[in-house]
Task: inverse folding
């Protein structure tokens, strides 16, 4: 225990574990079936970003600290959403993805996602899809490989965020919401096609 002058603060003990069982089942996250579901990961990152932005808006502070996890969560959401669509659309078309699925390059992932969506749904609106591509390039210029919002420096000890000085979190959430409508819709259409295929 550490005495901070007012209270004794608990420190890690030999009985602590990240995975201790508890009688408070309402605090338990159930991983059994969910951990195998791609969309649960995807939606989880988006929801976490949304919750943090809503907290910043509600409280009116902490945006300078929370911007980093918020932007990482939203970027991770986009990456997982694109990879999920590529994965499922490729299975539906009985093809292999033309891009590296172990990479974090959003424009490359979007190019493959776009190609597959146009092949599956040629009558969909291309203007909105092209706007998503533009937004993937814009975000990638700030965070090319998913490290800029996770670390203040790269492995050469250079600042990771030197091309931007402010981010409006309410705006980011709004843009993510618009992209999400199209990505969720595409994902749902692929699910319908998979269910209908023999």
Result:
């Amino acid at each position: 225990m550490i005495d901070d002058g007012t209270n004794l603060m608990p420190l890690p003990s030999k009985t602590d574990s990240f995975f201790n069982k508890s009688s408070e089942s309402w605090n338990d996250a159930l991983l059994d079936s969910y951990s195998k579901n791609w969309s649960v990961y995807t939606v989880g990152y988006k929801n976490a970003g949304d919750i943090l932005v809503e907290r910043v808006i509600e409280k009116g502070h902490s945006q300078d600290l929370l911007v980093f996890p918020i932007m990482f969560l939203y970027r991770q959401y986009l990456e997982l959403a694109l990879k999920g669509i590529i994965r499922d659309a490729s299975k539906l078309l009985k093809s292999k993805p033309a891009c590296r699925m172990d990479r974090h390059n959003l424009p490359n992932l979007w190019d493959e996602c776009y190609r597959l969506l146009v092949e599956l749904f040629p009558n969909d609106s291309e203007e909105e899809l092209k706007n998503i591509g533009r937004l993937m390039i814009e975000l990638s210029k700030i965070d090319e490989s998913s490290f800029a919002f996770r670390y203040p420096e790269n492995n050469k000890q250079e600042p990771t965020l030197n091309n931007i000085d402010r981010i409006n979190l309410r705006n980011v959430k709004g843009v993510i919401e618009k992209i999400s409508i199209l990505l969720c819709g595409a994902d749902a259409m692929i699910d319908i096609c998979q269910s209908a295929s023999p």
Notes: The CA atoms of residues 37 and 192 lie 17 Å apart. The longest strand covers residues 2-3. Residues 63-92 form the longest helix (30 residues).
